[in-house]
Amino acid sequence: MLVRKNMDDLFDVPLEEGWIAAAHAIPINCGHTYSKPAGPGPDALCTAFQPLPESGITLHSINSGIVVLNPTEKLNDEIIDGLHNDPNVTRYGFPDQDFLSSHFKNRVKFLGYEYNALKPMRKCHSAIWRDENIRNVHYIFKDKPWVLPEDTEKLDEQFHVIHGWWWDEWKRLEAEKKEEQWWELVVDLTSLGSKGMPS
């Protein structure tokens, strides 16, 4: 993930007891936009859509990249109990978010996509995507910018701009922090240290 704008307001999201907050998931084919029922408009990126209780699980599915909750022992026990007793746990395709989507169905306050903007959305949901409104980019799928060299030819062209954001931030941080003792550890943790990452 790459935080592009301040997200401190997430600490103030009002939640009912036993609720969580998260952004919607998108199907892998990116063929559906969770927006207002009237259709996606230019404000849909930052406009949270709360599905009706009777809506199917697709509209209730979260992406677990960003989850807001008020941690309590009671909520912890409830989640642990749910993990032990949900018969579908071993069948979930995306275990964490599928479990949370099912367990907290009708107890999710949905956030706008700007808090957890999944990288494929920039192209497949270009009608609602606004670069300037993105607060946090979630680099889903295996081709992460910190794994692939900046000049790789393996990256799908649609992701060049979004991966470029990460590289711009990396270079800025490197210029500021490379003399710090811990910087070498950061390089190693990104997996780029052994892949010709600039130093």
From TrEMBL:
Keyword Protein biosynthesis annotated: no
UniProt cross-references to Gene3D superfamilies, sorted A to Z: Spore Coat Polysaccharide Biosynthesis Protein SpsA, Chain A
Top-level division of the source organism's lineage: Eukaryota
GO MF annotation terms: glycosyltransferase activity
Keywords on record: Transferase
Pfam families: Glyco_transf_8
PANTHER family named in the record: GLYCOGENIN SUBFAMILY MEMBER
Protein's name according to its UniProt entry: Glycosyl transferase family 8
Species: Rhizoctonia solani
